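Sequence design from tokenized structure. All designs in this work follow the same two-part layout: the structure record, then the generated sequence. An example of the structure record is given first.
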């Protein structure tokens, strides 16, 4: 169980670092897929 928790923690940390990197670079939507996913998220 501890191994699973570590994996989830590492994955969340990596995702958070990616998002912060995009925010710092002022390029939050780097592809059409990013933009499309955000629009769909806003609609629903």
């Amino acid at each position: 169980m501890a191994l699973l928790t570590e994996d989830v923690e590492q994955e969340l940390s990596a995702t958070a670092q990616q998002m912060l990197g995009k925010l710092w670079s002022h390029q939050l939507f780097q592809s059409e897929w990013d933009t499309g996913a955000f629009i769909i998220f806003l609609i629903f």
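The CA atoms of residues 10 and 16 lie 10 Å apart. We note this feature because it recurs in several other targets discussed in the main text.
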